[in-house]
Amino acid sequence: MPIELRRAAVTEMDPATLYRLLWLRVSVFVVEQRAAYAELDGRDLESGAELLWAEEEGHVLSTARVLREPDALRIGRVATAPEARSRGVASAIMRAAVERCDEIGPGLPILLDAQEHLVDWYARFGFVAEGERHFEDGIPHRVMRRP
């Protein structure tokens, strides 16, 4: 069965799919990366927020979130299950997130906070690092912008 890309606001999602998507985020960010932080930050419920995910046979393999900021759009919470890594799934999610941002706000910059070891990966999608390194939950990050 092929991998399917999906997108929806939290209020439009099937509860079981939402659960699997949030479970993936917690598994990657909180458990795997050992970053004890408020993964459920309330921003998923903001007006205009959308979740994107890739699924295969009902399993969520990768996810990202698109948020609307005052003068930009923001991609975040990009996570991929270990078994789906190196299969191009995360790249497909990023391409879909960038395309969605371009649909929502043509000409608006797209922002993200990249873990420093992924700066080159995000650069493949047109993002450029800005400013100095900062730390989020002990993990070095860089602000990136796609003009």
Which helices and strands occur, and which strands form pairs?
Layout: E1 4-8, H1 15-32, E2 50-56, E3 59-69, E4 72-80, H2 89-104, E5 110-115, H3 119-123, E6 128-136, E7 139-146
Parallel strand pairs: 4-5
Antiparallel strand pairs: 1-2, 2-3, 3-4, 5-7, 6-7
General description of the model:
This protein has helices spanning 15-32, 89-104, 119-123, and strands at 4-8, 50-56, 59-69, 72-80, 110-115, 128-136, 139-146. It has 147 residues and is of the alpha+beta class. A seven-stranded mixed sheet has the order 1-2-3-4-5-7-6. The mean pLDDT is 92.
Measured as a percent range, the helix fraction is 25-40%
| Parts with pLDDT < 50 across at least 5 consecutive residues | none
- The total count of strands amounts to 7
How would you sum up the global shape? Answer: globular
Task: Please provide a brief summary of the model.
The chain is an alpha+beta fold and 147 residues long. The chain contains three helices and seven strands, in the order βαβββαβαββ. The mean pLDDT is 92.
Keywords:
147 residues; alpha+beta; seven-stranded mixed beta sheet; globular
